[in-house]
Amino acid sequence: MNDTRSCDVRVFGVPMDLGQRRRGVDMGPSALRYAGLDSRLRKIGYNVIDSGNLTVPISEQIEDEAGDARAYNAAAISQVGSQAYECMCETVRRGEFAIFLGGDHSISMGTVAGSLGRGESVGVLWIDAHGDFNTPMTTPSGNVHGMVVASLMGLCPPPLRFGSKLLSPEQIVYIGVRDLDPEEKKAMSRHHLKALTMREIDEVGMANVVHAALNALGNVDCIHVSLDMDALDPSVAPGVGTPVAGGLTYREAHLLMEMLADDGRVRALDIVEVNPILDLGNATGKLAVELAASLLGSRIY
After folding, report:
1. Which CATH superfamily is domain 9-295 in?
2. 103 cis-preceded (ω within 30 degrees of 0)
3. Which of 116, 138, 145, 163 is most buried, taking the most CB atoms under 10 A from its CB?
4. Orientation angle between helical segments 108-116 and 74-94, nearest 10 degrees
5. Does pTM surpass 0.90?
6. Residues annotated catalytic, as ranges
7. Which sequence spans correspond to the domains of the chain?
């Protein structure tokens, strides 16, 4: 295990709910901060620097965009994604560990693109109930938060691209997938994406699934973890915008994070899709903070 505690942790809030139609995930950064992210990470030995929130327009301020039906709010999301990209790039230059608090999953278009610009090889672990591999031509909803991985691979048109480096299929592994749109499923198969679904977890257990994911990313120097809280079962994470039954248990999620900490290559974390409006006593925000702490080295013993 490579201990990351020698580096600072820099936190950015991205209070954006423009990538989908259900309001509330814009309050996610506040919920995570209120749940004690800063104090929890300081308790295990980190110097935490909170850089506040990126500037995000609210949907009521956005004028109707012509031709936007297939990529809802694309121009406004692009503005926020550009900020996230620059913040990630600057954090990489400083040698800091980056945590981005969403907001919906479209923030990862910018954050992951920033990680791809590192001077070392990068892998992405996509922990999510969904594939996020639609494009404006295949989407059934027009929601950009369902196009993020496709965008990172260069399959979506501008303005949904950031930086000069594209994500390749062998650089990403999914964990927890259980809800794919028909055309999205075909596209993921066509691009040979590695998806370790809930069935794999049921059949062989989380420990073996994590080993398989890390082996698939065995040639990369560092890993960017993009954690959509809807990867977890709604019984333990009720406060998400698109809940899907049959997700990760509390212990499966912690074991995943603990094993990633042991691996030592994670350098960035997105926590997305926390919706306090739908939550119960900020249970989802509190669990997200616990998982971040596990990823950064918190141990039972």
Report:
1. Ureohydrolase domain (3.40.800.10)
2. yes
3. 145
4. 40
5. yes
6. 105, 128, 130, 132, 145, 228, 230, 273
7. 9-295
